[in-house]
Amino acid sequence: MPGPVGTAPRHAVAVSPPPATEAPAPARPRRRRRYRPAALGWAAFFLAPTTLGLGFFYMWPVVQTVYFSFTKWGPFGGHQWTGLDNYRAIVRDETVLSALRNTVYFTLLGLAGIPISIVLAALLARKGRRGVTAYRALLFLPVVTMPAAVAIVWRWLYNGDYGLVNELLSHVGAHRTYWVSDPNTALVAVALVGIWTTVGYNMVILMAGMEAIPRHYYEAAEMDGATGVRQFFAITVPLISPSLFFVTVLSIIGSLQTFDLVYVMIGRTNPALPQTRTVVYLFYQKAFIENDRGYAAALAFLLLLLIVIVTAAQFRLQKRWVHYE
Amino acid sequence: MVTRSGRRAGTRLATLAVGVAVAATLLLGACSSSGSSSGSGGKVTLSYGLWDKNQVPAMKRIAAAYHATHRNVTVNVQLTPYDDYFTKLQTAAGGGEAPDVFWMNGPNFQLYASNGVLAPLTGTLDTKPYPASLVKLYQLDGKQYGLPKDFDTVGLWYDKKLFDAAHVKYPDASWTWPTFVDAARKLTVPAKGQYGTAALLTGQEGMYNTIFQAGGYVVSPDGKHSGYGTPQAIQGLKFWTDLIQQKLSPGQQQMTDTAPYQMFEAGKIAMYWGGSWDAVEFGNNPLTKTQADVTVLPQGAKRATVIHGLANVVFNRSKHKAQAIDFAKFLGSKQAAQIEGSTGTVIPAYAGTQQAWIKSHPQFHLQSFLDELPYAQPLPVSANTAAWNTLEADILTKAWTGSTPVDQAANNQAQKMDGVLAKEGK
Fold first, then answer.
1. Cα separation, B112 vs B317, whole angstroms
2. Rounded to 5 degrees, what angle do the CA atoms B124, B129, B134 make?
3. B390–A contact, CB cutoff 8 A
C-alpha cells in the first residue's frame, strides 16, 4: 500500500525484530543486510523518543479509554465495571443521533473546501504573477491563527445586530439574520469558517503537488493544442491526485472532530445548538459538564471507530482514482 | 484545539485518536496542584484555593490576620481562574492533592460532599449570623460542611432615563407582575430597537425567581423530583415566554448574539433582572454608572428572590485537617467578613458587616438586595446539578424560541430531570 504524500515508511518504527525474521522483498531480491548490534542500539536510541511518546501519549490512552468506556466513572476517580451499559445508553440517546448527523453535515460541507483549494492552488502555483507571495501568505494566515481567536472574531462578524456580514448584505436588501443563533443558518455559518481556516493548508499541499508535475507534460499538451482549462483537468488534476487524496483524508478526519468552532461560536443556550452540536462537543458536554466520563469514553471510542472505518474505506477507494506516477 | 492538532500532526495514523487523547490527558491526571506541606518545629502551611482574582487582596489580608494570632500557621493563597477551577479541583481531589481549604459554590457542593471529598466542620458552630437559606445550602445529611462566605441576591435594575422618557414611575417594592408587564409595554419602542425588559434564559437571574414567586419549586425538598411539571413552575416560565411573544423582550436569537446586560448598558433595555454582583459592572459602565438604579424584584403570588453564596470548605484528606477546620471557621468569622466587606467586591454573609458593600456604590440603592433576604430562596441544586442544568439549556431554549409550547417543554424538562435525579441516588 503506497503511503500518502509525506508519510514516513511504515516499517521505520519496527526496529526491534532481529534481521533473520525479516522477509526479503519478493519483487527485487535484496541481500539480507546484517545490522551490527551497535547500529541497532543507536537506531533504538533515536527512535525511542517518538515511539515512547506515541505509545505513552496516544496509544496507551486509547487503550485506557476503551477500557473506561465499559465502566461507570466516579467524579473523583475510581470506577466500576458496568459492561455494555454506556453503549446501550448511547444507542437510546437521541442527542447522539443528531450529533452524528450534524457531524456528517459538517464533514460534507468541509469537503466543499477542497475544490476551492484546488482552484486557489492552481492560480497561485504559477510563479511570476504579481502579488502571488502576498496572496499565499494571506490565505495561509487563518491556518496559523488560534481557532478560539478565529471563532471569536467570526462571532462578531456574524452578529445579528452589529455584525459586518449583515451590514454588507443590507446593501443588497437582505433581511437581518442572526447567523450563528438561527437554527437554519448556524451550521452552514460555522462550517464556512471551518473551510476558511483549512483552505490555506490544503492549498499549500496541493501547490507542492502541482510544482512536482514535470513542465514538459504541459509543453506537449500545448503543442497538441490543449487549452489551459483542458490542461488543468487532463494533466493537473490527475497528477495531483495523491496530494488530493491526502488532503481529503485529513479534511474528513478533521471535520469529524469539529469542536472548537462550535464551542466558541455557538455556546450553551444558543437556540441553534441542537442543530450544530457535534459528536466531540457532546463528548465534552458529557465528560466535563455532566461528569459522565464512562459514557463520554464510549462516545469517543465510537468516533474513533467511525474515523477508522471512513479512512479505511478511502484507502480502498483510492485505487480507483489516485494515480501514482 | 482538537481539530487543529489533528491536522498538524496528521502524518501519523495514530492521531486519529486525538479526540480520545483529550479524555486521556485527564485520565493520566497530570495535575500540578501542590498540596499542603508541613515545615519543621510544628509550623504548618495551609493552601487556600479560590477563583476570583479581584478578591485575592482581601483573602490575603484575612490570611495575614489569621497568622497574626496563629503564628505557627501560614496560609498560601492559590488562585485558579473559574473556567478551570472545578475541573482542576476534581482531578486534584481525586489524587489527594486538593488545597486544604477552598471555595465552594452551591451547584457543586453536594457532588463534593456526597463523595466524601469534604470534611464536616466540627466543634461549636454559630450559624445564626448568616442567612438561614445559605447555611442550609451547605448542609448534607445533617452535617454542616461550610460557613457562608458571601452572598448575592437578584434585583430589578432599571434605566432611569428610559423611564423618564416614557413617563413611567420608577419601580419600587409595591410592584407586582402585572405592573411590571405594563411598564415593559410602555417602555418598548420598536423604532429605536428598545425593549422593556430581557427574558434571560438563566436560572439564577431569570426563571428560578419567577418559579419561586409563583409558589413553585425546581427541585423538591427531598431532592428526588423536579418541580418543572407543576402548574406554578409553568406559570413562572410563561412569565418570560409571554414577554418574548409580545415582543417586550428581544428574542432568544438576538439575546444569544448580544448579551442582554450589554444591551442594558447600551440603553436598549429598560429593566434588567440582575444580581447584586452586577453593581461592579454597572458601576463601571459610563452609561449605567449614572443612569441605572436598582430595586427589589416585583411580586408574583408571593415575594421571592434567588439567593446564592460561596462557602469555605475543608478538604477531607488534608494533612492538617484540624488546622484547616480552624482556619475555615475563622474565614466565617465577623473579623474576616469585615475585611472582606471593606473591599466592596462582594456582600459578606455575616450579619452586620454589609454596610461597607452598600456604600461602595452610593448611586445605587444596594440596600434592596438586603431587603430581599427575609424571603430569599436558595439556588436549586442537587448532587449533579450540572446534568440537569444542561437539560434546561437544551429543552427550555425551545420554549424561549417558541418552537415548543411552554407547558410541553416544562413537562419534557420535568421528565428528563427526574431521570437524572433518580440516577444521582445510586
1. 13
2. 95
3. yes
DSSP characters over A176-189: P--TTTSTTTHHHH
Number of domains in chain A: 1
Name the DSSP letter for residue B312. Answer: E
Q: Is residue A71 part of a domain?
A: no
Which residues of B are less than 8 Å from A75 in CB distance?
90, 111, 115
Asked if residue A103 is part of any domain, the answer here is: yes
Closest to A149 (Cα-Cα) out of A31, A275, A260, A30: A260
Enumerate the residues of chain A whose CB falls inside 8 A of the CB of residue B24.
57, 60-62, 64-65
Q: Tell me the pLDDT tens digit for each residue of B123-144.
A: 888 899 999 989 999 999 999 9
Output the domain CATH number for residue A310: 1.10.3720.10
How do residues A230-263 score in pLDDT, each as one tens digit?
A: 988 899 989 999 999 999 999 999 999 999 999 9
Q: How far apart are the first and last CA of chain A?
A: 14
CB-based contacts of B391, cutoff 8 Å, min separation 6 = B413, B416, B417, B420
Taking the CA of residue B201 and the nearest CA in chain A, the distance in Å comes to 7
Q: Is the ipTM above a cut-off of 0.90?
A: no
Interface size A-B, in CB pairs within 8 Å, comes to: 173
For residue A12, pLDDT beyond 80: no
Q: Which residues pair with B314 in a beta bridge?
A: B101, B119
Domains of chain B, earliest start first: 9-152+308-350 (3.40.190.10), 154-307+381-424 (3.40.190.10)
Residues of A in contact with B2 (CB under 8 A): 257, 259-260, 280
- DSSP for B14-36 reads GGGGHHHHHHHHHHHT-------
Would you call B125 an interface residue with chain A, using a CB distance cutoff of 8 Å? no
CA distance A191 to A262: 9
- Closest among B210, B261, B259, B256 to B233, alpha carbons compared: B210
Query: Does a structural domain hold residue A273?
Result: yes
Q: Which among A62, A158, A254 has the least Cβ separation from residue B17?
A: A62
Encode pLDDT of A192-207 as tens digits. 999 999 999 999 999 9
Q: Nearest by CB to B111, which of A7, A60, A75?
A: A75
Average of per-residue pLDDT across B295-311: 96
**H or E stretch including B49?**
strand B44-50
Closest CB to B23: pick one of A8, A178, A300. Answer: A300
**Residue A175 in domain:** no
Enumerate the residues of chain A whose CB falls inside 8 A of the CB of residue B6.
250, 253-254, 257
Q: Is A290 close to B10, i.e. CB distance below 8 A?
A: no
Do the Cβ atoms of B151 and B134 come closer than 8 Å?
Answer: yes
Print the domain residue range for A108.
87-149+185-321
Is B9 part of the contact surface with chain A (CB cutoff 8 Å)?
Answer: no
